[in-house]
């Protein structure tokens, strides 16, 4: 599903974010990316959808050579990925329903199919009854659930989440993780950068730790491994 070889990234200001990363993630895996601030996690995540381009190395996502994609082709890659951020990034002037439907309208999905699928994913995240609300009328946890619904509505090949519970309290975070677990159980690969020790330790999934741009740990059933 994801293959990286010899990936290094040095920003123009001289900061070295990643050094010679080799990594293989199989279809259906749930992978946590952990490490101290400044370790290179966000750089890693952004390379998966070509927001950041490494200086050398190769990245394949589901067999697609990401670095060989032209600027015009990159949006097609991104449409096959479900990307979730700490700050939700919803459209404030659109309802819950419209925020999720928008992702399907972009790929010109027929209206009847769109409506059915949007209601299905809103039900999956437990927000079907808030379809007509606006994001500002919802709690942080509810907004993140909409962001998840939007990310999965087009059946992505890979879900990428950067600190998805970073702004949420522990109980809400556990609810959010239950949703990610059910998405993963349906076969979707998930890569999640997080600082949430409780969640990583409770899940018992693969943990890749990055420090100073290098993979220092890769455990099949890992723990967070840092002070919280
Ligand atoms: P993390 O997500 O683990 O906190 P980052 O990937 O954000 O780590 O950062 C890794 C290193 O790259 C840090 O030293 C950071 O200062 C540097 N860095 C990140 N983004 C940029 C950028 N756009 N320009 C220059 N340096 C950057």
UniProtKB/TrEMBL annotation:
Any one of the GO BP annotations: cell division
A Pfam family matched in the record: ABC_tran
Gene3D superfamilies, A to Z: P-loop containing nucleotide triphosphate hydrolases (3.40.50.300)
Classification via InterPro entries: AAA+_ATPase, ABC_transporter-like_ATP-bd, ABC_transporter-like_CS, ABC_transpr_LolD-like, Cell_div_FtsE, P-loop_NTPase
Keyword line: ATP-binding, Cell cycle, Cell division, Cell membrane, Membrane, Nucleotide-binding
Its membrane topology: Peripheral membrane protein
Record GO terms (molecular function): ATP binding; ATP hydrolysis activity; transmembrane transporter activity
This protein's GO CC annotations: plasma membrane
SMART domains (UniProt xref): AAA (SM00382)
SUPFAM superfamilies hit by this protein: P-loop containing nucleoside triphosphate hydrolases
Subcellular location(s) per record: Cell membrane
Residues of the ABC transporter domain: 2-227
Main location class: membrane
Family under the similarity heading: Belongs to the ABC transporter superfamily.
Function: Part of the ABC transporter FtsEX involved in cellular division.
Subunit comment: Homodimer. Forms a membrane-associated complex with FtsX.
Protein name: Cell division ATP-binding protein FtsE
Organism listed in the record: Candidatus Avacidaminococcus intestinavium
